[in-house]
Structure to design on (662 residues):
């Protein structure tokens, strides 16, 4: 069957990039406003700028999608209502979201808004796509980590539109499941403030190296296959990138989509996108060589040969032009300086240019070519409408917040304990917990004997936890596993993705763990209406946000090793302990679970000393997670004693609990 031509979807972090996308042949453009978008460091668009962009796009029949793809704090709901009111009136073509609370609000109050599920929603199999369709989500932006076989199977089953990233930077962790930046300093990736820890150098066996620094995504070789599969939208990453980048990359993909015979010409254009080295990632089966040994983007053009007053000289066989942008890297400390080439002269492969910056340069510093302006784009809109976001009346917002309240009776305090190995069951005393969550590997679940007398006697307390990632090829395996467990009388489950509810029978009780994010009352209400029995608050949450919640029935995680990276990408750590150290001398551990690379810190996050305060605030459900600990009666006794007396566990950290999630 002949598939319609896919949409070319381009990024715009500012007005200049917006015009570059239009000129290069965008079918649609995605951009963010000042709040609630996952590129908080981009310039982004004011209300007036968005209205002007919509006017310009409409003239060319180009669609505008607005990114609202961060998690929403509870106190931000009022502002979110104003933003959604404005976007619905403005007539944007779709909003791109991550937060289930935002979804609930949009569906309840703004039914005209078309919703696209961000890649940060973690849809990586046909189950996620099916669930999204049931929730009337118009389009699913799939995870970047899919193989071509998986994508083919998902596309063949999908009844909703699919979107895929085809070019640009890659995150090491699954998008939406990275807490490393948040852990290091409260700058949450899911809040649009990622500090890019995957681009840093770490110490491994006393050697400095890049462990997680991925090359850039480029799917030009797979373009015809993606078209054949009927992928509705081909997306270019880059709302932090320049207009020149947007224009060049867009031009290349426009050419390749419209004229497949010109693919070689398109590839030549992409050689000067000034990004990192390229891979086709899991779609191209080249993950083995996916890590690059430089965090610099751009094309290396040489090293500083001599310095004299305000003149810099370097040798290069690359043809440079006046006005080209370069980055100068200090080879000793890796610091960089961005420079525009002025007064450029060439003499026998030796270039010289004027440098008047305050930064100190050195002979031997490396030069990277990072940009060339081939065409100028407007930096301002010619006709800027006078627009101001009108706030909804306070009374209307208050009434709406009351709609988010879950009506329930107060319950007695409950403690859940999560374990990740069968050996823990020999160390636990079941009477000490109200629920025990078995977060086993697939292999352990398959081999575990659920008919054991001990298990059957305590089955009313047992919960089976499903993993954050279930590949398309293992969906049937998990369906059979779940059915086998249910026939043994164990019918309580914790799911890591809302779509996993579809794997369970209607008679089973479904709870969601901290990976189904509940940062606000709207998300809690949405889960309640989806018949989720228990939900958890995220571990990276902070106390101030928790205190603002009306819906306090959720489970607060009091002790756990946070999974900072959760990645399908293998990584090599040379030392036998699988440990590495960052530049502040913090130690981290790499483990592998069901083919997934997991990175945890050396110490747990422990909030046991705040239990009494949390109880006073109205919280009564708590969890202790023993995953990533070696099974030990001593550890359990120590943690439970601290829990009972609300005492501090050491050594530990409190993550964002007191310092706050930005």
């Amino acid at each position: 069957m002949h598939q319609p031509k896919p949409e070319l979807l381009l990024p715009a972090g500012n007005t200049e990039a917006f015009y570059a996308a239009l000129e290069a042949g965008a079918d649609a453009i995605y951009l963010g406003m000042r709040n609630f978008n996952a590129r908080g460091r981009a310039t982004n668009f004011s209300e007036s700028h968005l209205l002007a962009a919509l006017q310009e796009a409409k003239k060319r029949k180009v669609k505008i999608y607005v990114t609202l793809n961060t998690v929403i704090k509870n106190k931000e709901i009022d502002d979110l209502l104003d933003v959604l009111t404005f976007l619905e009136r403005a007539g944007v073509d779709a909003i791109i979201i991550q937060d289930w609370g935002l979804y609930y609000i949009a569906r309840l109050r703004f039914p005209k808004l078309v919703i696209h599920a961000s890649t940060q929603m973690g849809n990586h199999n046909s189950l996620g796509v099916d669930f999204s369709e049931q929730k009337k989500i118009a389009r699913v932006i799939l995870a970047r980590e899919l193989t071509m076989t998986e994508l083919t199977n998902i596309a063949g089953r999908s009844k909703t539109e699919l979107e895929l990233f085809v070019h640009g930077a890659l995150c090491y962790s699954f998008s939406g499941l990275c807490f490393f930046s948040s852990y290091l300093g409260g700058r949450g990736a899911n809040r649009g403030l990622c500090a890019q820890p995957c681009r840093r150098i770490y110490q491994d066996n006393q050697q400095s190296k890049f462990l997680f620094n991925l090359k850039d995504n480029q799917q030009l070789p797979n373009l015809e296959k993606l078209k054949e599969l009927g992928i509705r939208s081909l997306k270019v990453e880059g709302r932090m990138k320049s207009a020149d980048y947007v224009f060049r990359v867009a031009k290349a993909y426009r050419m390749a989509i419209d004229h497949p015979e010109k693919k070689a010409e398109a590839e030549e254009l992409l050689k000067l996108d000034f990004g990192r080295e390229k891979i086709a990632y899991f779609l191209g089966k080249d993950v083995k060589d996916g890590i690059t040994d430089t965090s610099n983007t751009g094309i290396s053009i040489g090293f500083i040969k001599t310095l004299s007053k305000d003149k810099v000289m370097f040798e290069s066989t690359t043809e440079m032009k006046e006005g080209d942008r370069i980055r100068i890297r200090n080879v000793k400390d890796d610091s960089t300086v961005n420079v525009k080439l002025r007064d450029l002269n060439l003499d026998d492969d030796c270039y010289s240019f004027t440098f008047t910056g305050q930064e100190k340069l050195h002979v031997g510093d490396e030069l990277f070519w990072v940009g060339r302006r081939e065409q100028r784009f407007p930096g301002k809109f010619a006709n800027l409408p006078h627009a101001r976001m009108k706030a909804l009346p306070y009374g209307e917002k208050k009434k709406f917040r009351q709609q988010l309240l879950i009506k329930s009776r107060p319950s007695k305090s409950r403690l859940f304990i999560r374990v990740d190995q069968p050996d823990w069951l020999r160390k636990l005393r079941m009477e000490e917990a109200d629920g025990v969550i078995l977060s086993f590997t697939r292999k352990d679940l398959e081999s575990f004997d659920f008919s054991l007398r001990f298990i059957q006697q305590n089955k009313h307390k047992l919960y089976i936890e499903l993993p954050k990632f279930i590949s398309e090829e293992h969906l049937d395996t998990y369906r059979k596993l779940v059915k086998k467990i249910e026939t043994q009388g164990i019918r309580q489950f914790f799911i890591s993705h809302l779509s996993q509810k579809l794997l369970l029978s209607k008679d089973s009780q479904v709870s969601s763990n901290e990976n189904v994010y509940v940062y606000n009352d709207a998300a809690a209400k949405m889960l309640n209406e989806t018949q989720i029995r228990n939900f958890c608050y995220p571990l990276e949450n902070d106390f101030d946000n928790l205190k603002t919640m009306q819906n306090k029935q959720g489970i607060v995680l009091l002790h756990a090793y946070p999974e900072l990276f959760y990645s399908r990408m293998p990584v090599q750590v040379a030392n036998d302990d699988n440990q590495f150290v960052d530049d502040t001398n913090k130690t981290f551990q790499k483990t592998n679970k069901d083919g997934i690379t997991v990175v945890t810190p050396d110490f747990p996050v422990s909030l046991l000393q705040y239990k009494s305060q949390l109880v006073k605030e109205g919280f009564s459900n708590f969890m202790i997670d023993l995953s990533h600990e070696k099974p030990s009666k001593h550890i359990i006794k120590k943690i439970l004693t601290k829990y009972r007396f609300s005492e501090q566990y050491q050594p530990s950290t409190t993550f964002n609990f007191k310092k706050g999630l930005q």
Notes: The chain has a mean pLDDT of 95. The chain has three domains: 7-170+215-272, 299-371, 412-561+604-645. The longest strand covers residues 299-308.
